[in-house]
Amino acid sequence: MIPVGKLKSNLQFNKNLGDLIEVMKLAATSQFNQFRLRQEPSLEFINLLDDLFGVLLGVGIGNDLLKPRDDLPSLLVLISSDEGFLGELNFLLANSLLNARRHNDIIACTGGQGANYLREIQVDFSLFDSPGEKLDTKVLASLRDYILGLYLKRKVGRVYIIYSKFISISAQQVETEAILPLPKDPQVERISIKDLLVEPNLQSVIEGWIKSWLDFRLYQIFWSSKLSELAARIMHLEGSVQELRKINSRLNMEYFKYLHGLSDKSIREITAARLINKEK
After folding, report:
1. Which pLDDT belongs to residue 243?
2. Percentage helix, strand, coil, to 5, in the chain?
3. Helix axes 89-100, 202-279, angle to 10 degrees
């Protein structure tokens, strides 16, 4: 049995810890709500890019972006969080990457949590800054240029992004999404335009198009990943609150039993003393 002094100390400690977790949960909820107000990536923009790609295919360029190169290694990009309190989410993301990796694949990572895990298991990788809650476009552009540099120079044949997709505040889904070569979308049709004027040249146009497309996809992925991270933190903290309540309930029961036993002992001693006095 736990000594009564230790019981009281544990109850007070758990109360203070519970108050702290509640504050953290409120802060995480506020952070989630504020981020959710940020403008969601517009699907209208990607539809316009698809139409333009159809035009480019119609004039005979862009086909290389659709062809897989299975003889080359792949690039796997892990998107993890900089902060903790996400339960097993970062662990699941890293494991998904390891399950998809082949021996010669190239690994890149954003977020300190994923980087720490990869260092622990001694996996070589390139680390990139996280774009943060502001989804810094300069940071995203740096990752985009790295991806394109490897792909266009034929150092990798495929590019995969491993991230946590936001489903709802209580559900997140680990995704391994292939972004290069381009997914063959049946909605993208080859559009033939006679006397099409292209400036300055076809190569510059296709490079500009793929940069714009990747900018959109990376923004879309990081937007979903950040929402998922914030939602996972809320649920993890809520789970901690519930677990702490169970522990406190058990400690309160033990403390009550101790006080009840102490009260019974006192009553018995008083009763015994009275009986002795009467006999005298």
Report:
1. 79
2. 60, 10, 30
3. 140
pTM: 0.78
Sign of CA dihedral 113, 116, 122, 125: positive
C-alpha–C-alpha distance, residues 239 and 246, integer Å: 11
Residue 270's pLDDT is 58
pLDDT band at 4 (very low <50, low <70, confident <90, very high): low
Say how many Å lie between the first and final Cα of the chain, rounded. Answer: 39
Q: Taking 50 as the threshold, does the pLDDT of residue 186 lie above it?
A: no
User: Helices in 76-201 by DSSP H: which ranges?
Assistant: 89-100, 112-120, 137-152
Which residue would you say has higher pLDDT here, 207 or 128? 128
**């540099």: which residue's tokens?**
149
What is the three-class DSSP state of 106? strand
CA angle 113, 119, 123 (to 5 degrees): 120
Q: Mind listing the pLDDT tens digit for each residue in 231-266? A: 988 888 888 888 777 777 776 666 666 655 555 555
- Torsion angle (degrees, nearest 10) of CA 132, 136, 141, 142: -50
Residue-wise DSSP of 47-99: HHHHHHHHHHHHTT-SGGGG---TTS-EEEEEE--SS---TTHHHHHHHHHHH
d(CA 64, CA 72): 14
